[in-house]
Amino acid sequence: MTDFFKGISPVKFEGPQSANPLAYRFYNKDEMVMGKRMEDHIRPAVAYWHTFAWEGGDPFGGRTFDRPWFGDSMDHARLKADVAFELFDLLDIPFFCFHDRDIAPEGASLAESNRNVRAIAEIFARKMETSRTRLLWGTANLFSNRRYMSGAATNPDPDVFVYAAAQVKNVLEITKDLGGSNYVLWGGREGYETLLNTKIGQEMDQMARFIDLVINHAKKIGFDGQILIEPKPQEPSKHQYDFDVSTVYGFLKKYGFENEVKCNIEVGHAFLANHSFEHELAVAASLGILGSVDANRNDLQSGWDTDQFPNSVPETTLAFYQILKNGGLGKGGFNFDAKVRRQSLDPADLLHGHVGGLDVLARSLKAAAALIEDGTYDKAVDARYAGWQTPEGQAILKGERSLDDLAARVEKENLNPQPHSGQQEYLENLINRFV
């Protein structure tokens, strides 16, 4: 045991009337919602990078946190692992996520770096024998080191591609060994800064080959989790190849991966793509590639990915509506890809962020479930498309009518369709009854 969280008691559910700032007021993990435990709906996870590796810097200022595990030695990494599992136990949280560079220092060679990562993974495995926290997903950091300044899979140098592949192999195998439910391909620099030096087609082919290698190796080692791509627009490259869900699906479809790979969707990334989180979830669900989500929010007045903890029940309710209508997240979950503010220096702040975020998710889950169980909203939307359920509407969708057929019907029946109200204000008011 360390003394970093000295004096802080485990967080418990105390109900909405509690004034204890380190108690769950709405997140009751065992409460049944639509026939399933609340925890099993949400499947929350702590992000190792923001919670333990982030030093408090932003684009205009450096480190503000002074953590005893900050450093480049394996001793620092082991201390970090100790503190991490202490936080997991205090929060009573079922999952965590990590990049390889979050958990262990980079060595002089990839072999040394991989040994460092595996050594910490072995510590995780021992700690998981006495902790209920498990691994939601792992990933490799293919963006921080200067070798990846021009991308990893999309790099113009094939040796960088090979190095990245070897790095992913190690983390994929560790993720499997730790019982992870997913492996995320996060293309932090898979894009371009200028077309003057870029062959887009070449780079897309390279990225496809890289993903194919990952899929095949996952099958070879018996990894039965999901392979996920996380859409990420604009930041840091001018143009990212995995801009949004639709762009990712187009890529997957082109190369035949649409049944092999799904999406890990982040709130902040949806915003940077000029979408809502709800939109990205709805698109992914409609395409069959909704895999997992990252829970956070952006500062609407800042131009970068601020990764704040979620705190809007109305917005998150609409997200949960899409997830519940999709049948849930399956092997996915809600990873808190969020960090406390750079002025939040105290150990307790790390708990406050997660406690508040979990309470928001719990309230949103229950609101979305009530909305679905009430049925009024779904009936209103279904009524708008009712014409497509008629025999004629179905015949059109099934390809049983030609343009000649449709034109003849307009003439024969003297069709003159009139517009109907979309009822947006009514539907907004209806949603607000539940949030």
TrEMBL record:
The keyword Cytoplasm applies. This is Xylose isomerase. The active site is at H99, D102. The keyword Disulfide bond does not apply. Binds 2 magnesium ions per subunit. It comes from Paradevosia tibetensis. It catalyses: alpha-D-xylose = alpha-D-xylulofuranose. Belongs to the xylose isomerase family. Its main location: cytoplasm. Keywords: Carbohydrate metabolism, Cytoplasm, Isomerase, Magnesium, Metal-binding, Xylose metabolism. InterPro entries: Xyl_isomerase-like_sf (IPR036237), Xylose_isom_bac (IPR013452), Xylose_isomerase (IPR001998). GO terms for cellular component: cytoplasm. Mg(2+) 2 binds at E266, H269, D305, D307. One of its GO terms (molecular function) is xylose isomerase activity.
